[in-house]
Amino acid sequence: MLTSRPQPGQYVPYFDNYISRVPVGTEPLAMLAEQPEQLRQLIGGLSEEQALLAYAPGKWTIKEMLLHLIDTERIMAYRALRIARGDQQPLPGFDENAYAAESGANERPLSDLLHEYDTVRQATRTLFGSFSPAQLNRAGTASNHPITVRALLFVVPGHEAHHVHILRERYLPLLH
């Protein structure tokens, strides 16, 4: 069964960039299952030194970008859990740059970050796979904007696809 795409108004337009990266006709849960192998193929073989590459001054390193994916996935899954369970409390936003600056990602082995990524991804897939159609349609408020659980299901793989695109376009060419 294909999960229907979220409709405009079920999420803030900022998320269009992410939701559009889930190809029409693609099941987002399947995309969540496929992405870990794709990410490992891109960065799993990097040396610790290579994983500290930033494509420009002031930009995140590959390790920081990976931990940003992990942090964002956790936050989006937490939002989905709260909204799916009927919690109508407005959920706060987060400052991704402040998170990256305090992450300590560059001091951790890449293998440790990849293990954490795999663990979080498995939990995310299990959580989203547990939601009923009614729960997927529930709406709440995050970062002062309406959002549905369905939209969050599309945002998670779309957000990763966005960063993998940047990784391929801006980081990896500098390594070859």
Provide structural commentary.
With 176 residues, the protein is mainly alpha-helical. Helix content is 58%, strand content 5%. It has 7 helices and 2 strands, in the order H-H-H-H-H-H-E-E-H. The protein has helices spanning 16-19, 28-43, 62-84, 96-102, 110-130, 133-136, 149-175, and strands at 139-142, 145-148. The protein has a two-stranded antiparallel ribbon with strand order 1-2. The longest helix has 27 residues, at 149-175. The termini are far apart.
Structural descriptors:
176 residues, mainly alpha, Four Helix Bundle (Hemerythrin (Met), subunit A), two-stranded antiparallel ribbon, 2 strands, 58% helix, DinB superfamily protein, DinB-like, DinB/YfiT-like
Please outline the helices and strands:
Blueprint: H1 16-19, H2 28-43, H3 62-84, H4 96-102, H5 110-130, H6 133-136, E1 139-142, E2 145-148, H7 149-175
Antiparallel strand pairs: 1-2
Concise account of the structure shown:
By secondary structure, the chain is mainly α. The chain is 58% helix and 5% strand. The chain has seven helices and two strands.
Structural class: mainly alpha
Mean pLDDT: 97
**Total count of strands:** 2
CATH class category: Mainly Alpha
What's the CATH topology name? Four Helix Bundle (Hemerythrin (Met), subunit A)
Q: Count of DSSP helices?
A: 7
Beta fraction of the residues? under 5%
> Would you identify the CATH H-level superfamily?
dinb family like domain
Rough outline: globular
Q: Give me the strand/helix succession.
A: HHHHHHEEH
User: Sheet with the most strands?
Assistant: 2 strands, antiparallel
Low-confidence stretches: none
Pfam families: DinB_2
Protein name: DinB superfamily protein
Domain DinB-like: 32-166
InterPro entries: DinB-like, DinB/YfiT-like
